[in-house]
Amino acid sequence: MSLIHSLNLSFFLFLLGLWGIYLNRKNLILVLMSIELMLLGINMSLLSFSISLDDLIGQMFALLVLTVAAAESAIGLAILVVFYRSGHSINVDYINLLRR
Amino acid sequence: MYLSIICFPLLGFLISVGFGRFIGRRGAATLTTNFLLLSFLCSCVCFYEVGLCGSSCHFTLSPWFVCHLWDPNWGFLFDTLTSVMCVVVTSISSLVHLYSISYMGEDPHLCRFMSYLSLFTFFMLMLITGDNFIQMFLGWEGVGLASYLLINFWFTRLQANKSAIKAMLMNRIGDFGLALGVFVVYEVFQSVQFETVFACAPYLADTRIVFCGFDFHAYTLMGVLLFVGAVGKSAQLGLHTWLPDAMEGPTPVSALIHAATMVTAGVFLLGRCSPIYEYAPDALGVVAIVGALTAFFAATTGLVQNDLKRVIAYSTCSQLGYMVFACGLSQYTLGIFHLANHAFFKALLFLGAGSVIHAMSNEQDMRKLGGLAKILPLTYGGMFIGSLALVGFPFLAGFYSKDALLEVTFAHYSFTGDFAYFLGCASAFCTAYYSFRLISLTFLGQPNGSKRNYTDSHEAPLLLGLPLIILSVASVFVGFLGKDMMVGLGTSFWGNAVVSFSGHTTSLEAEYIPQSIKHLPFFLTVFGAGLGLTMNRPTFGSKSALKPKASKLPSLSHASYTFLNRRWLVDKVYNDWAGLPGLNFGYLVSFKALDKGILEAIGPSGIALSLPSFVSRLSFVQSGYVYHYAFVILLGCTLILTLFTLQHTLFVWLDLRLGLGLLLAMLGLFPKVII
Fold first, then answer.
1. For chain B, what is the mean pLDDT?
2. Greatest CA span in chain B, whole angstroms?
3. B132 SS3 class
4. Chain B residues within 8 A of A92 when measuring between CB atoms
5. Which class for A80: exposed (0-12), middle (13-18), buried (19 or more C-beta within 10 A)?
6. What residue numbers bound the domain in which A66 lies?
7. Which residue ranges make up each domain of chain B?
8. pLDDT band (50, 70, 90) for residue B71
């Protein structure tokens, strides 16, 4: 498996995450999952480059991103729970309070 | 002492305008008049020394603008031309001052009036004594300013305000031409000093100059542009409309403006610039033709005017036409001579008219006068002499200048010469007609005005009558006294002040023209005078004069009467085709469409109006939906990536700054379209 293939995969994952965010109109959990997917894609590309360039720094970053992603998803889920508690719904369509 | 000629009027002006409150009305009047008389005495000495003894005088007071080649000084040049003008200006002006003491005696603003008169005289003297074009221009503008103040003297009268503005604007058009002419002079000669310019004139006669994209003979251009200035100031055809309207000022003002000072500035300019005009035959042709047309136009218009002062105003216009075409045929000395003579009899006519108006409770309409010869014998005598002098009756002032002028004009053997001669003869006929029509309607026949005016009227008091007497004497003798000196064959009076080539002057040829031609103006004059006297007596001598008779006239006569009475409809043409479109342009195009339109739309108010709605429209993008934000982020990233990737191919044909400008312009121009 060459660098190109793994990069394609990571780019596709990233795009999938992006699309997931803006095509999804319903579920907030799906948004969080898409963000995870994007971070996964980024991790993938970091690792691929690390292998390809024979450099450890990429893997160090991948570990860092992993922790960041975990923390972020924890905080995100916490916000989601708070949001559900106040709004009794996790429908994305209802989250347009920022407008006003 | 030469300087005091100029300083006395200035001093009179300053004291009268500054301390008029303290010295009182009579004090101011006496003071200014005495200052003017002193100035006149100095002018007489100047005339003796410069004119008769032939020692012209030139001195520089101080530098004015000294910058590189630009060299106007405060300098004063007293040559023959200036000394003649000085005598004319100061003598007429002091008589007008004297006259005003009585004529304006009841006016509460006598101080102001006298100070303006002195200011006028001062600027006129500045104009004629300046030794460079710039100082002359100072006087030129100053005279215009003073005329504005004087015409507008009764500033509560709407008509006076309008007339003053008109005078100022018409003059300003001419001044613009004069300024351009001075620029051309400086461009060609690199100097504005008369001595330098005129000394270099023969050597640069072939210069060509590019003006407004066209290649001109420099002197022709110069001459025509300077003449535009003269046209404005001397009320030649085209810019003449201000002169009859200037009658709104008090009568002494009319006497000053029309007789001696303002209008003569144009002729003075032509005489002064004769070294340039002599090398520009085309410009001379323009001058001659415009002058002749003016003489004819004003004379025909004067035929049917019913306002006492307007008749004299048109006669001024006509006589100025004579002077100007004399200058246009290189007879500058004749033009100046006629100017000097004209100053005396025209001042006489105006002051006489003022006396009539004064006696008749400000009645100016000739149809409501009549039969005044018995009541105002002195005025009648004065105006009769003035009219005889004006029409060129033999051995009076006008004869020596006007008939001589027509003779040399005929002897000029050129198209312009013949043109000017025939128009001049026709004008002489008309002049005689309207002068004696004026005499007939005002002084002869039966009274046509109200009885009250006649019972109240009285002969002019001493201060009013004295100037009339002096001017009558002058009108009789000045021409005879001055003829050999000023325009006699081979006179050395003018020295270098006025240049005319021997090939251009025809004073000798004039002696050999046919007798019939020589006599023609005289016969025309006598014929016109007789016609003026006889035709107006039976028709207008009775009460029926006040009834409108025009309806009984045949339609052609009626039409021509209306045409002439309304001054060839020039005013109407100007108002309809120049004034109104100009005002409309100013309001609709440059104000509404440009200033308040386009510039406002792409400027402050356009942005201020369009931005809020634009921004609120823009804020709809802020939908609040997360997926919209995500989409915009995606779109933005894609756009930036695309731009970075394709920048080399993209920016070849798209300039970002241009695009930004276009965007702004569209924002302003079509706020509703965009938003």
1. 87
2. 112
3. strand
4. 625-627
5. middle
6. 3-86
7. 309-539, 569-609, 625-674
8. confident
Write the CB contacts of B238 (distance below 8 Å, at least 6 apart in sequence). B231, B290
- Is this model's pTM higher than 0.90 or not? no
If contacts are CB pairs under 8 Å, which of residues 41-80 in chain A contact chain B? none
Question: Is B624–A22 a contact, with Cβ atoms under 8 angstroms apart?
Answer: no
Name the residue of chain A whose CA is nearest to B634's CA. A18
Whether the Cβ atoms of residue B308 and residue B366 lie closer than 8 Å to each other: yes
Query: Chain A closest CA to B627's CA: distance in Å?
Result: 4
DSSP character string of A42-66: HHHHHHHHHHHHT-SHHHHHHHHHH
Nearest CA in chain A to B624: A96
In a domain, A24, yes or no: yes
Residue of B nearest to A35 (CA): B630
Tell me which chain A residue has its CA closest to the CA of residue B628: A22
pLDDT tens by residue, A24-76: 778 888 888 999 999 999 999 999 999 999 999 999 999 999 999 999 999 99
- B462 contacts: CB under 8 Å, gap ≥ 6: B102
C-alpha–C-alpha distance, residues B391 and B427, integer Å: 10
| Under 8 Å between Cβ of B148 and B168 | yes
Provide the number of CB pairs (under 8 Å) joining chain A to chain B: 31
Going by their DSSP bridges, the two strands B208-211 and B57-63 should be labelled as: unpaired
Which 3 state secondary structure label does DSSP give B411? coil
B649 vs A95: CA distance, rounded Å: 42
B634 to chain A: which residues are within 8 Å by CB? 18, 22
In the DSSP assignment, the letter for residue B193 is B
Helix, strand or coil for residue B209? strand
**What per-residue string of b and e applies to B105-126 under the rule 16 or more CB within 10 Å gives b?**
eeeeebbbbbbbbbbbbbbbbb
Q: Residue B307 — φ and ψ, nearest 5°?
A: -90, 130
Q: How far is CA B328 from CA A94, B135, B227, B356, B539, in A?
A: 94, 24, 10, 36, 40
Task: Please tell me the distance from the alpha carbon of residue B321 to that of residue B266, in angstroms, as a whole number.
Answer: 11
Q: Is the dihedral of CA B98, B103, B108, B112 positive or negative?
A: negative
CATH of the domain at A73: 1.10.287.3510
Contacts of A25 in chain B (CB under 8 A): 627
> What residue in B sits closest to A94 (Cα-Cα)?
B625
Instruction: Write down the ipTM of this complex.
Output: 0.80
Q: Is residue B207 a contact partner of residue B279, using CB atoms and an 8 Å limit?
A: no
Count of structural domains within chain A:
1
Q: Where are the alpha helices (DSSP H) in B513-603?
A: 515-540, 555-565, 570-573, 580-584, 599-601
Does residue B620 sit at the A interface (CB-CB below 8 Å)? Answer: no
Inter-CA distances, B164 with B79, B148, B265, B311, Å: 33, 5, 18, 19
Q: How far is A89 from chain B (nearest CA, A)?
A: 15
Give the tokens for residue B285.
């042709």
Beta-carbon contacts of B509 under 8 Å, excluding residues fewer than 6 positions away, are B408, B411, B412, B413
pLDDT tens per residue, range B568-625: 888 889 989 988 999 999 998 888 888 888 888 887 888 888 888 878 777 777 777 7
Task: Name the residue among B622, B624, B630 with its Cβ closest to that of A21.
Answer: B630
With contact defined as beta carbons under 8 Å apart, do B424 and B517 qualify?
no
| pLDDT on residue B544 | 46
Interface residue of B626, B631, B632 to substitute, partner A, most A CBs within 10 Å? B626
